[in-house]
Amino acid sequence: GENVEQHPSTLxxxxxDSAVIKCTYSDSASNYFPWYKQxxxxxxxxxxxxxxxxxxxxxxxxxxxxxxxxxHFSLHITETQPEDSAVYFCALGSGAGSYxxxxxxxxxxSVIP
Amino acid sequence: NAGVTQTxxxxxxxxxxxxxxxxxxxxxxxxxxxxxxxxxxxxxxxxYSASEGTTDKGEVPNGYNVSRxxxxxxxxxxxxxxxxxTSVYFCASGLGGPNTGELFFGEGSRLTVL
Lengths: 113, 114
What we know:
- The structure holds 2 protein chains of 2 kinds.
- Helices cover 0% and strands 55% of the residues of chain A.
- Chain A is mainly beta.
- By secondary structure, chain B is mainly β.
- Chain B is built from no helices and 11 strands.
- The A-B interface holds A 1, 4, 6, 9, 31-32, 34, 36, 41-46, 49, 89, 91, 93-106 and B 4, 31, 33, 40-45, 48, 50, 56, 58-59, 90, 92, 96-100, 102-108.
């Protein structure tokens, strides 16, 4: 089955700095790469996603980059704010007909004011 | 806007007891999912329902059963709880499959099995 490695497991940054989280995968059939944010005591929320026919996608302070050749994708958060503190999960899926996402183990991001 | 609602939020069981986790969504979504989340682990799919009337096993279905009661409701049952089922359970819903768009998650149900 699909496997995804997520690093780092914890990340602390000063407010205003950038944060980068990276995920690597092995299954070349993977073609959908979402990122979910989980705040304490809440369910996860989609923050950005990318498909395999696109190399980069940006939404305000958040961007995701995909390197299909190297089989890794990364979440970039610029100008971090305290409200960015949360656990971030990468995930990957394959095919529109698939109902299964494989999630990474998560990265706990702490933004220090 | 309620979104995805799960009950109960907390439950403590003894080994061998049974219980049902309830989930309801008010977004007219077709697909619904049950995930479990363990410390240091990502979300793992237990069961899903692609549409009303269908259910399928996910990655970790052993020890669980599900019922898609109608389009809104999807319940998860533990027939004989085991300590290994101590976890936080999340229900989610989506218009189609998770690879076609956003999943909306409930706030989670924390289950402890003694």
